[in-house]
């Protein structure tokens, strides 16, 4: 696994500059929160992280796909089971479609149970004409448009831990308790196909999935009894941004003696905090989870190879996922040199496409949005780049919700600009709604088959 420097410890990042950390007003209160978290149970276990590592290793080697998706940022207000269930439902539906389209297993990872902290482009934002500290997520402060409510409060880190624990508990119950049954998931997909003009386009593909299930049954496979058809693994992930949350939840595995970040199965380093000599790269070089790094349009081949060497020196397939977010217009030009350089380094990685973060714009009235068509165009460009270089397009990383929100424009049942304010609920970036997410999954399945 990652060669842990002799000088590495869960706290060694403290000697280095850490970008995008909140200006906590009270260092003693923050230290007390760290101390409390150190005494709390881990949210995930090392053995689970190793199982995910194995799954991602299959993706790195071209034998599986990665579907990583969820909110831009989770909300402390979302405590009811319904939005979590709906999010999981759409993830399972997308995964069924992709599994069939690619004829490959899909490794399912939610941006969930800990995706609470945000890096921001600017320290302040204008809300209703008033300049306020930018919203950085509910583990930092409230989203209320009020200067006092935006003061970082470390007590919220503890609240984030409890909410992550309760979300994870629900996910474990749903994924192991029958909700993920493939026949059920296929029924939902048929409902999507039958109930909307967006879905009708995919009738043939959905019928083929139905026939494949009927074929399996005819061959004697009892769909209801076969465990792999009604129990699934959905792993958790978030951006490992708040190192004061990650450090105390980092624990030494009793079996191997290796350190694991036990706040989630997989964590990623954001585009804004991936400096080679920065605190985040230092911290993640020493934990043994599968990790990701976002790569924006400014990433150079040398930088990317250096990140691979630093974060995956033992060259373990599945350890490192590179999440490219280049923009629909530039992905075909910017990605191939990176793909070639990483291949030449000999370091195995999963390449995933985040078609969301470089395709954001504000409408004339100032609403932050993305076009479904740009999202699809970036995914097509990502596949084309891999085809041109001969590398494996490992998967997609998306911002989605199971709710019928109106945050991204377009999709087959188009959300129009004048409809954005009908249900614009995200606390940070615009998410694909359930229909747009399924529409995307069917299109990606068509791409894979093509
Ligand atoms: O989710 C990602 C970032 O936090 C977000 O895209 C930054 O948005 P901003 O440019 O509005 O700060
Ligand atoms: C902050 C995010 O992305 P990036 O680091 O790529 O901007 C995100 O995934 O929400
Ligand atoms: Mn985002």
Automatic annotation (TrEMBL):
Record keywords, A-Z: Amino-acid biosynthesis, Aromatic amino acid biosynthesis, Cadmium, Cobalt, Manganese, Transferase
UniProt GO MF annotations: 3-deoxy-7-phosphoheptulonate synthase activity
Stored Pfam families: DAHP_synth_2 (PF01474)
Gene3D superfamilies, per database record: Aldolase class I
Binding-site list for phosphoenolpyruvate: 111, 271-272, 294, 325
Ligand binding (Mn(2+)): 72, 357, 399, 429
Cofactor: how bound: Binds 1 divalent cation per subunit. The enzyme is active with manganese, cobalt or cadmium ions.
EC number, UniProt record: 2.5.1.54
Catalytic activity: D-erythrose 4-phosphate + phosphoenolpyruvate + H2O = 7-phospho-2-dehydro-3-deoxy-D-arabino-heptonate + phosphate
Coiled coil residues, start to end: none
Cofactor(s) the record lists: Mn(2+); Co(2+); Cd(2+)
Family matches, as SUPFAM superfamilies: Aldolase (SSF51569)
GO biological process, one term: amino acid biosynthetic process
Pathway membership: Metabolic intermediate biosynthesis; chorismate biosynthesis; chorismate from D-erythrose 4-phosphate and phosphoenolpyruvate: step 1/7
Protein family per UniProt: Belongs to the class-II DAHP synthase family.
Name of the protein in its database record: Phospho-2-dehydro-3-deoxyheptonate aldolase
Species in which this protein is naturally found: Gaiella occulta
């Amino acid at each position: 696994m990652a060669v842990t420097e002799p000088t590495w410890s869960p706290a060694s990042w403290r000697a280095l500059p850490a970008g995008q950390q909140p200006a906590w007003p009270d260092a003693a209160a923050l230290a007390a929160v760290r101390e409390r978290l150190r005494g709390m149970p881990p949210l995930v276990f090392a053995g689970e992280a190793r199982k995910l590592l194995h799954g991602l290793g299959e993706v790195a080697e071209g034998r599986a796909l990665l579907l990583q998706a969820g909110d831009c940022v989770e909300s402390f207000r979302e405590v009811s089971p319904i939005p979590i269930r709906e999010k999981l439902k759409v993830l399972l539906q997308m995964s069924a479609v992709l599994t069939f389209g690619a004829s490959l297993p899909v490794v399912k990872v939610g941006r969930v149970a800990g995706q609470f902290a945000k890096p921001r482009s600017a320290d302040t934002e204008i809300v209703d004409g008033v300049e306020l500290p930018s919203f950085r997520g509910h583990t930092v402060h409230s989203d209320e448009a009020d200067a006092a409510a935006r003061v970082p409060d470390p007590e919220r880190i503890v609240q984030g831990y409890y909410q992550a624990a309760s979300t994870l508990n629900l996910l474990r119950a749903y994924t192991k308790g029958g909700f993920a049954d493939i026949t059920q998931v296929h029924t939902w997909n048929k409902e999507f196909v039958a109930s909307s003009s967006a879905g009708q386009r995919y009738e043939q593909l959905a019928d083929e999935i139905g026939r494949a299930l009927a074929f399996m049954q005819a061959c004697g496979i009892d769909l209801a009894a076969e465990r792999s058809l009604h129990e699934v693994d959905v792993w958790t992930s978030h951006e490992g941004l708040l190192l004061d949350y990650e450090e105390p939840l980092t624990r030494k595995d009793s079996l191997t003696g290796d350190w694991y970040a036990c706040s989630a199965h997989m964590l990623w380093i954001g585009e804004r905090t991936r400096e080679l000599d920065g605190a985040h790269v230092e911290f993640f070089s020493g934990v043994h989870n599968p990790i990701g790094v976002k790569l924006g349009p400014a990433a150079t081949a040398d930088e990317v190879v250096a990140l691979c060497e630093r974060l995956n020196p033992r060259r373990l397939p599945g350890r490192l996922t590179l999440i490219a977010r280049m923009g629909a217009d530039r992905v075909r030009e910017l990605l191939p040199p990176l793909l070639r350089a990483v291949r030449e380094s000999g370091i195995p990685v999963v390449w995933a496409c985040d078609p969301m973060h470089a395709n954001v714009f504000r409408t004339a009235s100032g609403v932050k949005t993305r076009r479904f068509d740009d999202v699809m165009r970036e995914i097509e460009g990502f596949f084309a780049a891999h085809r041109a270089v001969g590398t494996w397009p490992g998967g997609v990383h998306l911002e989605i919700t199971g709710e019928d929100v109106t945050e991204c424009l377009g999709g087959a049942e188009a959300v129009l600009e004048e409809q954005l304010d009908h249900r614009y609920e995200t606390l940070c970036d615009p998410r694909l709604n359930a229909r747009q997410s399924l529409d995307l999954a069917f299109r990606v399945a068509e791409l894979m088959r093509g």
